[in-house]
Amino acid sequence: MKIPYAPQGLLLLLGLQASLLLFSREPENPSGQFPESFKEFNVPSLGENVFVFDPSMKMKDIQTVIDSVFSRQSARRSEFSENRYA
């Protein structure tokens, strides 16, 4: 039995479309400001783009901060920009 294959051009087009959907997301909070609750994780002496976590913090709160930072960044646009976090 012969298995039909999709043309390579179609596969390339689908791959490019998927990439655009993944990497062109706009930040959920376009104002650039994090919610007030994130201030407990920020250490001013290390810079405004640094968040410090310790074992006593709730995992859900930490994940919320990480998800928010991730949604603001794009792999192509943030690597060498000022929109980087540690």
Short description:
The chain is mainly α. 35% of the residues lie in helices and 0% in strands. It has helices at 8-23, 59-72.
Describe this structure in words.
This protein is mainly alpha-helical and 86 residues long. It has one domain (8-72). The chain is 35% helix and 0% strand. It is extended, with a radius of gyration of 19 Å. The model has no long low-confidence stretch (mean pLDDT 68).
Q: What is the number of helical segments per DSSP (H or I, 4+ residues)?
A: 2
> Which regions are unreliable across 5 or more consecutive residues at pLDDT < 50?
none
Residues in helices, as a percent range: 25-40%
- Main structural class: mainly alpha
Q: Into how many domains do the coordinates divide?
A: 1
On the 0-100 scale, what is the average pLDDT?
A: 68
| β-sheet strand percentage | under 5%
Tally of strands: 0
Radius of gyration, in Å, reads 19 Å
Principal-axes shape call: extended
Main sheet properties: none
Gap from first CA to last CA: 54 Å
> What is the string of helix and strand elements?
HH
